[in-house]
Specification:
Layout lengths: L11 H21 L5 H8 L3 H7 L3 H16 L1 H9 L3 H18 L1 H5 L4 H8 L1 H17 L8 H13 L12 H11 L29
InterPro entries: Homeodomain-like_sf, HTH-type_TetR-like_transc_reg, HTH_TetR, Tet_transcr_reg_TetR-rel_C_sf, TetR_SbtR-like_C
GO molecular function: DNA-binding transcription factor activity; transcription cis-regulatory region binding
Protein name: TetR family transcriptional regulator
């Protein structure tokens, strides 16, 4: 489920530099937030700015590469397991859980990308192919609604990823909206309570959130 970041094969030393830069980027975005300067990332990686820009044209390209790394590590194995599971609906929701967990863990990376639509298209490229397979299987098994389309799934996924903007980085507040999506697209609503409600955090220096958001 890789992002579309085209690269030529790299020499061993250049590949090591790319690895160091991506590792440093994930650390710096988590530590300092989405506005962290590229100079800080280069210093953390132990490379010069010229090396960073030789490999990544701008911050967005670096962010996409860092997200790609995280998704390959944390989501791709879950996708493989879901496709091998006899229960397609259960596999589908494990994939969505893994994706949301990764999005929450790297919320500052997501926040550093200006074009959210382009980002969503990138991170859901081959993932949506697997989701399509799981959706069709689940509908064939009678566990998922027959009237759900892949356009619906793409938009539901966009809605879920946007939840990250309403919670603290690393929070699992996404579990409740994901459960609501599951209730909506399963043919029979699961007999379980919703996950715990997590209030929307107030911006720094802002007044207390109204009751509707607590």
């Amino acid at each position: 489920m890789s992002l579309a970041v085209a690269r030529k094969p790299l020499r061993a030393d250049a590949a090591r530099n790319v690895d160091k830069i991506i590792t440093a980027a994930r650390h710096c975005f988590r530590e300092f937030g989405p506005e962290v300067p590229l100079q800080t990332i280069a210093t953390t990686a132990g490379v010069g700015p010229a090396t960073l820009f030789r490999n990544f044209a701008d911050k967005e390209e670096l962010v996409l590469a860092a997200l790609n790394r995280q998704l390959r590590i944390s989501v791709d194995p879950v996708v493989d397991g879901a496709l091998a599971d006899i229960d397609a609906a259960a596999g589908l929701f494990r994939v969505l859980e893994a994706l949301m967990d990764a999005a929450s863990a790297d919320a500052n990376l997501l926040g550093a990308v200006a074009g959210r639509r382009e980002l969503l298209t990138g991170i859901t490229g081959t993932l949506m192919e697997s989701v399509s397979v799981l959706l069709a299987r689940g509908q064939g098994q009678g566990s998922l609604r027959q009237d759900i389309s892949m356009t619906d799934m793409f938009r539901l996924l966009a809605m879920l990823i946007s939840v990250v903007d309403t919670m603290e980085p690393g929070s699992d507040a996404w579990r409740r909206p994901l459960a609501l999506v599951e209730d909506a697209i399963r043919s029979t609503r699961p007999a379980r309570p919703l996950p715990a409600h997590v209030p929307v955090p107030a911006p720094a220096g802002a007044a207390q959130q109204p009751d509707a958001l607590r």
